[in-house]
Amino acid sequence: MSIQKKTTKRNIITVTGLSLLLTSGVSIAAVPSTPGPYVGVYNITETSARISYIDNASDEDGFKVYIYDNTNGILDSSITPNPITVPKNDNGSQYQYTDLTNLNPNSFYQVKVSAFNSDGESATTDPSSEKGGRFRTEDTCRPEMPGEYVGVWNITNSSARISFKDNSDDEDGFKAYVYNYNTDALVDTISMDAVAGTSSNQYTDITGLDANTLYKVKVAAYNGCGESKRTTPSSTTNGRFRTKNDTCPLTPGEYVGTYNVTSTSARVSFVDNSDNENGFKVYVYEYNTDVLIDTIVVPSVSGVGKYQYANIAGLTPDTLYKVKVSAFNSSCESPTTTPNSTNNGRFRTQP
Predict the structure, then answer these.
(1) Is the pLDDT of residue 66 over 90?
(2) Whole-angstrom Cα distance, residue 245 to residue 331?
(3) Domains of the chain, each with CATH number or no CATH
């Protein structure tokens, strides 16, 4: 009886040992690593797009690109083939590229990519953002984005001028979005009329900016169907600029003398308080209505404390006027003087 028990025990050990031996000889399937994780999307049109992703394996036979409707997360059956099978890239580059075609206009998609070999298929990439595996195709009704380059020049303390090319013939107009570059806060939206003909240039001035501040501008075309994609600021003078930090000239001497008054003319004088002005502006208002009737630009004078003079003509007899004077340079204009009495920026013409 005891002998039988020992024999049974030996057989169990032998069988167990054999089982272990067999298990150690079995090979495990080697599925390739998932590509990406970032899937770039660009060159988007109404019906196509191009994607790129990094090959993270050396044992794949190829890749599969799955195109889903982003709204419901279902594989889009209207696109064939779907998934797209892409051969392994053997050109030595780490990157793989695939063109997506037969897409629907104005549709939101998400793309997932896997690698595969004879042992199986990897997990798919995870779309993370628009142009990071998710994208919307262009709307055929919307105008094309204006020419990607947005020129910036004539930059001052508080203003700049931009230009861009019109790429459509069906826009109703354009919008320039002005942002503080560092905070990404929208500080102004400027609407512009359409220009005639494709490839024509459009211009607009941006004003009311802060000195020594970095800004960026994005421009879009629009019509009744909606708005095009916005341009992408990419460098200094291409949609990105910093306002100047030049000092504004000081307001001319507060006293503005008025004399030689006739029924239709007068002469004014004032002291120059700066040495960095390009000139002066003399604003003439009808006193009772506050209507601006004339703006006279006069040149700068040499040296601080020197006098400048201006003649005012074309006035109405027996009428009360007031004059405000400022100094200006290429960056900005000073505050104006304040008329406060007869012969100091205020006068009445002769009957």
Answers:
(1) yes
(2) 8
(3) 40-136 (2.60.40.10), 151-242 (2.60.40.10), 257-348 (2.60.40.10)
